[in-house]
Amino acid sequence: MNVLPLRVWLRVAVVAVIGAATLRAEDFAVESRVYLGNGDRPINESLTVFVAEKAYDFLSDPSEITVVDAAAKRVRLLDPSKRTQTEIDFATLGMFTERLRQRLADHEKGDFRFFARPEFAITHDAASGMFEFASPRLTYRVQAFRAAPAQAGLYWRTSDWLCRLNLLLHPGAPNPLARLEVNATMAGQGVLPRTVELNPAPRNLIDWLPHRRAVIRSDHVWHEPPTPEMLRRTIEADRAAQEFRRLPLSDYLGKGEGR
Predict the structure, then answer these.
(1) From CA 8, how far away is CA 91, in angstroms rounded?
(2) Residues ≥6 apart with Cβ < 8 Å to 100
């Protein structure tokens, strides 16, 4: 019988433990592509990998990594081009969202007040998996499929935090409060999306023209479990979090003093 030296045996054991921890049956990933109108070229692409209680969101352009860490109750941003990082806790993102809600609720215009507490007429076609969230201001259509409740819950919670984060990082981004209402309903249904379509109501006569409608569609391709390449990227993101220079949020965004 061949006996492995202790050093080699330990190395094999460590590799086995890492492999077992990495290849979790409940882990999954989704590739997302966002299109404007009837365009066939995406305006945005991302990969989100869900490992245990973390979600790693890899944005293609600009190249940025967002790690939503449910256990630590924080979001970490990593910029590979500058080798810098920052973090925002869930409490700050939640407070920012509620301040926005209050400002909208106090607004003199009804269109703004609608977005403080959006209400939709919801219809569901079980045969096609299509959900429609209709309102005079905008309509969401989500084609979905059944999923494990834990996976569905994790996905929609992560989507919530990414929506809140997007508004904080990009003040001109679409109001997230309507999407949060849609997410809450979808999470309760235990489903995951194949497509999500946002159709804003026309603001003027020009918007009624078909080629002027600003429909935004996202397509989602799911992987269960994630591929080895996807898992490798999460390991590299964890390594980057140990190595990249930590900055306050304002400095990370280039809005610090003297910038």
Answers:
(1) 46
(2) 167, 175, 177
